[in-house]
Specification:
single chain, mainly beta
């Protein structure tokens, strides 16, 4: 069965950096678009970034452009999100997912910027 396990979250001050990881198993990771989505308390889940399985093309939400970098290692079945210049409004639970709405996602990793 599909399993997605996120890690790397934590508490950082504004301007800080974090690198999130997501270990994937139970499906052919290298053939899937992969996504990072996030959800802040009281808000709807939103897409942060996506990466194509083929040529590694990426898509970012506007607020992530220039600050976040999504990447993947198909040999390790692992997805990453490098987050720099973090802002308080980036505080949320971050999930990796196999779809843009985050319907199939992991348990999440908490990112708190304060």
């Amino acid at each position: 069965h599909v399993q997605l396990v996120e890690s790397g979250g934590g508490l950082v001050p504004p301007g800080g950096s974090l690198r999130l990881s997501c270990a994937a198993s139970g499906f052919t990771f290298s053939t899937y678009w992969m996504y990072w989505v996030r959800q802040a308390p009281g808000q709807e889940r939103e897409g942060v970034a996506a990466i194509y399985s083929g040529d590694g093309s990426t898509i970012y939400m506007d607020s992530a452009k220039g600050r976040f970098t999504i990447s993947r290692d198909n040999a390790l079945n692992t997805l990453y999100l490098q987050m720099n210049s973090l802002k308080t409004e980036d505080t949320a639970m971050y999930y990796c997912a196999t779809d843009s709405r985050g319907t199939r996602r992991g348990q999440g990793t908490q990112v708190t910027v304060s």
